[in-house]
Write a structure and sequence with these properties.
The protein is globular. Strands 1, 2, 3, 4, 5, 6, 7, 8, 9 and 10 form a 10-stranded mixed β-sheet that branches. A two-stranded antiparallel ribbon has the order 11-12. It is α+β, with helices and mostly antiparallel strands. The chain has helices at residues 3-15, 48-56, 73-76, 79-84, 112-122, 147-150, 193-196, 302-315, 321-328, 333-338, 343-354, 364-368, 372-396; strands at residues 40-43, 62-65, 93-96, 107-110, 125-128, 154-162, 176-191, 231-236, 240-243, 248-264, 319-320, 361-362.
Length: 406
């Protein structure tokens, strides 16, 4: 190759190298650019048949305008109403102290009515299941009123209550999610994981979230975000949004803001009978009558454990034992250690079950070689650890959950 030709190639490469700091979204809020994608919108809740076939099973988000207005909460839930409810003497709710989400921030407990009387002047933010004494005010979304959901798949509900200005981290949920807004406005910036999952660096695999600053996205640290197309979805009081399993999203709230989201386990056979679902919405099927089983039961099935571990490996280039432990437990190791739980021996037992070639790391090929008995032994060990954790929690009222809401 002639020297002149080599010089031209080098000059061309340098000249046309992409300078990400010059992209429009650099140091701008998450989703600032390329928010061109639109998701479907319907008026009110669709029928369960339409909802599951067209949105849940194919993993497509859906805006349901005015759907939340079916619940009494839409008109009842004023601060005056809350202050007049009969709250049990020993009842408390969890309150975060920073409106810009920080997974390591302090979380306090206080009576619900105390929160209502102070949240406008203190900047605190309630993130807690809907208190039982007002749970009758929320009708279970009509599109979810199916026996296979109501009888065994409901995981948790959460009431998000603030004076506005909250900002979540960029994250995914390991469950299906309907978020209904009863006060204020919310903005969701969402990313399809099937198209752009490799572009969004969830660099905290222990919690399935990204450390990117949602107010100032640095493309030099997170270059993949420069190429992502976003859905920017705005909802207002009375609207609901379906967020599919594992969809990447970030949420902002505006004005006095109150939302309730419902999570349910996405492990539903696609050949399930939708004919058993309610053809007409049952307004008496409320959060008070529904049974939520908690995130710990999401991990009970072998399929759930398997999918969670595969998802962890997909985010890690080298999954040695330390990465595996941090990915599943993370900062809660301190809780386990303080309670003398033999988590290390149990987690090593699980890791060694997966490390088929015994080289100190695991990969998807090794998982593919695991048979049913291997996975059953993993399940039994995780069940043993879960029971130890529950016993410790009952003794010191500590809090623990497997990361990624599992």
């Amino acid at each position: 190759m002639k020297l002149e030709t080599l010089f031209c190639i080098v000059f061309y490469s340098v000249s046309y190298a992409r300078d990400l700091t010059q992209e429009r979204g650099h140091l701008k809020p998450f989703g600032f650019t390329n928010s061109t994608l639109k998701c479907d919108e319907v008026e009110k809740f669709p029928s369960p048949d339409v909802f599951f076939r067209n949105y849940v099973f194919p993993k497509r988000p859906l805006v349901m305008r005015n759907a939340a207005k079916i619940s009494p909460a839409f008109k009842l839930w004023t601060d005056d109403y809350f202050l007049q409810v009969q709250e049990p003497r020993d009842h408390v709710v969890s309150v975060e102290t920073e409106k810009k989400e920080n997974r390591k921030q302090d979380v306090h407990d206080m009576p619900f009515t105390e929160f209502v009387g102070s949240y406008n002047n203190s900047g605190i933010y309630m993130v807690n299941p809907v208190p039982k004494f007002i749970s009758q005010d929320i009708v279970l979304p009509c599109c979810m009123q199916c026996p296979f959901i109501v009888e065994e798949k409901l995981v948790e509900n959460i009431m998000w209550f603030s004076s506005g200005g909250t900002k979540s981290v960029v994250h995914t949920d390991s469950v299906e999610n309907i978020n209904c807004l009863y006060r204020g406005d919310k903005q969701f910036v969402m990313v399809d994981p099937d198209k752009y999952g490799d572009k969004v660096d969830l660099d905290h695999p222990e919690g399935s979230y990204s450390g990117v600053d949602v107010d100032s996205v640095d493309y030099t640290k997170y270059p993949g975000l420069a190429d992502v197309e976003f859905y920017t979805i705005n909802i207002t009081a009375g609207d609901c949004l379906f967020i599919p399993y594992k969809w990447i999203h970030q949420v902002r709230s505006f004005d006095s803001n109150l939302a309730v989201n419902i999570w349910w386990n996405h492990f539903i056979p696609k050949d399930v009978s939708l004919e058993s679902c309610n053809s007409e919405c049952d307004l008496d099927l409320t959060l008070k009558t529904a049974e939520f089983r908690g995130f710990d039961q999401v991990m009970e099935s072998v399929d759930a454990i398997k999918e969670h571990v595969y998802a962890l490996l997909s985010r890690l280039k080298n999954c040695d034992y330390h990465s595996f432990l941090n990915g599943l437990i993370g900062d809660d190791i301190e809780f386990l250690g303080n309670n003398n739980i033999p988590y290390d021996s149990l987690m090593r037992k699980i890791f060694q079950e997966m490390d088929k070639n015994k080289d100190g790391s695991i990969n998807e090929e090794e998982l593919d070689k695991m048979d049913e008995q291997n996975w059953l032994r993993v399940q039994q060990t995780m069940d043993e650890l879960s029971h130890l954790i529950k016993d410790a929690e009952s003794l010191d009222n500590g809090e623990f959950r497997f990361k990624d809401e599992l």
